[in-house]
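So, read this over?
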Amino acid sequence: MAMTPSVPESPAAAAFSVSDVHRLLDEAVRAAGLVNMWVTGTVTGLRPGPKFTTFELVDYEADGSTVAAVLSVGVFASMARQINKTLARAGAELADGLQVALWGPLDLNPRYGRLRLMAQRIDPRTTVGAVVLARDDLVAELERTGRLRAQASRSVPEVPRRIGLVSSSTAAGRADVFAVLERSPLPVEIVEAQAAMSGPGAPAEVARAIDLLASAGVDVILIARGGGAKSDLAAWESRPVALAITGCPVPVWTALGHSTDHTLADSLANACHATPSAAAGALVARGEAALRAADEQAQRKRHEAELAASRARARKAVLVAALVVLLAIAAVLFLR
């Protein structure tokens, strides 16, 4: 039978103050050698700031969605810059859903009443391994559901008249697309849907923009980014963007501005181009080639019609000449 611990009648002698509790916890952590430690988990609730960034590290149950444990994380600006540089060299960026291994001291700040890890370093090997596995799982799912090569069956009209553009208002790629298309003699209409090209919100915004343009009656959708840090490419490996591209009934072209980096979005698109200018130029060249071919075909038909008319006139002239000869012969015979 379990024994119920005795409770002192008066708390005066046995009670601890809040400060005492925090002090005891701090002493226990230090005694256990847990002042600095590596902690792994999944980033959620990322809140970047100019001086201080916060988020939570989460462990999930086996179902992958039920939260098993949460630890608050804080990062000072100088450390955040170092962490972002480390991730950038590995081709990743700090974002919700990223699996990470962080190192730093545990902070038992009595003023805030919470336990928090003050992150100072990140091990990119954990992150890169998780990103690769996530990409492989997503590709396998797309293959299994028949969506992996869905864009390959989409056809861009020979003369695209209505072009959907996914970009941000500040992206250099957007200006490049407009410059190329406005120089073209083709009567092109650009329908825009703006979205962030990088950052935690980019995947959802790009997916929404693609869905919006797909229902706007465009001939092709061009995603124009136009360069930037390699770490900014995380959105183009994401599940929301992949599902939006493969589920789009309209051909999707990518122009993310990284000729040396081939993203999952590039692999799934109907066509990918190194730069937005190159993509816009390809659309213009496609239309001009189709118009030239149509013009050449019209010229051939006119030439064939003129040749047929010339031959008909020649045959008529031969017949007339033959008739004249026959009449002359008849006249001579008659006079005899």
The longest strand covers residues 36-47. Helices lie at 18-31, 77-89, 124-144, 172-183, 202-214, 239-246, 264-268, 276-335. The chain has a mean pLDDT of 85. The two ends are 154 Å apart (CA to CA).
